[in-house]
Design a protein that fits this description.
The complex is a heterodimer. Chain A is of the alpha/beta class. An eleven-stranded mixed beta sheet of chain A has the order 1-3-2-6-8-7-14-15-11-9-10, with helices on both faces. A two-stranded antiparallel sheet of chain A has the order 4-5. In chain A, strands 12-13 form a two-stranded antiparallel ribbon. In chain A, helix 5 packs parallel to helix 6 and helix 9 crosses helix 10. In chain A, 61% of the residues are buried. Chain B is 54% helix and 0% strand. The chains are: A alpha/beta, B mainly alpha. At the A-B interface, helix 9, helix 10 and helix 11 of A face helix 1 and helix 2 of B.
Chain lengths: 465, 69
């Protein structure tokens, strides 16, 4: 069976629907057909909300027929990691236990915001259990598969979000990122991903993991699509206690301004060790294209990662304490055993980690007086094989699961905004470059990623499935 | 007190005893086939915590998640 043709970008779809060259129904029906044809190979979707999607598409077409204005994402199909509430579905968050919950009575806030811009939700996406994962594997739903190499990991925990975007099933997906769960699958699947500043996008109506670090954000095959989705999702929200009261700060208007005039540095130290040579060479390739010669040391990054590890284990365990007490057999063992261990962490360890976080934040913010953007690798290697337990980094054999996040974890620890940009060093699989900016400067990270895309250094081709 | 070992102690027997006691206190059942994995995860966390605890912080440094009323 040949798959329907690859869909366009979100920007192209919205323009076509607004002008009447396409209808939202045609676009959504094509996306649903592509999901039906290709999803069995990559296992990205866990629910397809076809009836709802077609009804929403008809509403968009009816608005246009009435001459009413259309939003910036008119007719654009999207899908969300299955920890987002979708009305009528139990929010499973990759678990067996949560699928017994009552169906959600309302969509998550970000789903509502994208649909307010006339995008159309078509389903939910596979993820690692309770988001405690960097692999994209799931014992209950099966692993999501990397569309560029089906025997390889997508990365996690937003594995379905990476796979669905890379396979061109939808132009925009949403994921969550606590320690790297948007950036790791973006790198391994070869798509762009935005983890905004902590607190920038409301988390209302999503299943949490680690309140101190949980972020939501988009994945897409172009930086402009990331910016379109991001701009549509911003704004204060009374239902998330850490959501910023800041007004919308649109990134789209400055997207094409390029990197000229920005001070860009490459992270050294922790970010120049513990990885395969390719993961550093793609950062150098990006730096070269941007004319970035400065090097910068992010102080105590390895310790920051350790502190994030302790806080994650402890907060995650607290969240799931009743479930690991009463239903331990219903967990993925790899998640359960870490949560049980996390429940036993002495409280001074956690408090010290949070105090260290304050210190580290001050040190890193001081760096942004000297530079605007920092480049670093996203993952230490290309996509490992599904099921692979260990890899060798700098001569050391290490477990894959926690160490795929070795470069992402010290950044989300203090909530900095990051775009993961996919770079393909050869004919093989992609790697990612983290484009990191100061808090609330998503616009700069997106601008630099866009410059890399315009220079042909970063790109996200649709996988040939 | 100078001869006390650096905390946390990563001695296998001490960690296993701590894990078993903490499980009992919290009402957590650990099946024999998970036991080694739980102990090993706790040791990994203790190692990470050791890095954090070894870093000297001024007494005045507040924990990061400060509540704002």
């Amino acid at each position: 069976v040949s798959a329907p043709p690859s869909p366009s970008t979100a920007g192209e779809i919205a323009a076509a629907v607004a002008s009447g060259r396409s209808t939202a129904r045609e676009v959504v029906a094509a996306a649903l057909a592509r999901v039906e044809a290709l999803n069995p190979r990559i296992n990205a979707f866990t629910d397809v909300t076809a009836a709802r999607a077609l009804a929403k598409a008809d509403e968009v077409d009816a608005r246009r027929a009435r001459g009413q204005a259309l939003g910036s994402l008119a007719g654009v199909p999207f899908a969300v990691k299955n920890l987002f509430d979708v009305e009528g579905l139990p929010t499973r968050a990759g678990s067996r236990i949560n699928r017994e919950r009552a169906p959600a009575s309302r969509d998550a806030a970000l789903v509502r915001r994208l649909e307010a811009a006339h995008a159309v939700l078509i389903g939910t996406l596979n993820m690692g259990e309770y988001a405690y994962d960097f692999t994209g594997e799931n014992i209950h739903d099966g692993p999501s598969r990397n569309p560029h190499a089906l025997d390889r990991m997508t990365g996690g925990s937003s594995g379905g979000s990476g796979a669905a975007a890379a396979a061109g099933l939808v132009p925009i997906t949403l994921g969550s990122d606590t320690n790297g769960s948007i950036r790791v699958p973006s790198a391994l699947c070869g798509v762009f991903g935005l983890k905004p500043t902590f607190g920038r996008l409301t988390r209302a109506g999503t299943f949490p993991f680690v309140g101190s670090f949980d972020h939501l954000g988009p994945l897409a095959r172009s930086v402009a699509d990331l910016a379109l989705a991001y701009d549509a999702m911003q704004g204060p929200c009374p239902d998330d206690p850490v959501a910023t009261p800041r007004a919308r700060d649109a990134a789209m208007p400055s997207l094409g301004e390029g990197a000229r005039g920005l001070r860009i540095a490459v992270a050294i130290g922790h970010f120049a060790r513990n990885g395969e040579p390719d993961c550093f060479s793609v950062v150098e390739q990006a730096a070269e294209a941007l004319g970035a010669r400065e090097r910068i040391e992010i102080p105590e990054a390895a310790r920051a990662r350790a502190a994030a590890y302790v806080i994650t284990a402890s907060e995650g365990a607290a969240l799931h304490l009743d479930r690991i007490r009463t239903r331990p057999h219903d967990f993925d063992p790899a998640v359960r055993d870490r949560l049980i261990a996390g429940a036993m962490i002495p409280s001074p360890w956690v408090t010290q980690a949070q105090r260290f976080r304050r210190w580290y934040r001050e040190q890193v913010l001081a760096l942004f007086e000297r530079v605007d953007v920092i480049l670093a690798p996203a993952t230490p290697c290309r996509a490992p094989a599904i099921g692979q337990q260990t890899f060798v980094l700098d001569g050391q054999t290490l477990p894959v699961r926690p160490n795929l996040g070795i470069f992402t974890q010290p950044i989300s620890f203090i909530g900095l905004p990051v775009v993961a940009a996919p770079v393909w060093p050869d004919e093989g699989l992609p790697l990612g470059v983290q484009v990191i900016a100061a808090p609330w400067r998503e616009d700069l990270a997106l601008r630099v990623a866009h410059a890399l895309e315009s220079a042909g250094v970063a790109r996200a081709p649709v996988a040939a499935l | 007190v100078t001869d006390l070992p650096l905390a946390p102690v990563l001695d296998d027997a001490a960690v296993a005893a701590f894990v078993d006691a903490a499980a009992r206190v919290q009402g957590l059942a650990i099946a024999p086939e998970w036991h080694d994995a739980v102990v090993s995860h706790f040791k990994a966390t203790a190692g990470a915590a050791g890095l954090v605890l070894a870093f000297e912080l001024a007494d005045e440094v507040d924990a990061a998640p400060v509540f704002s009323a």
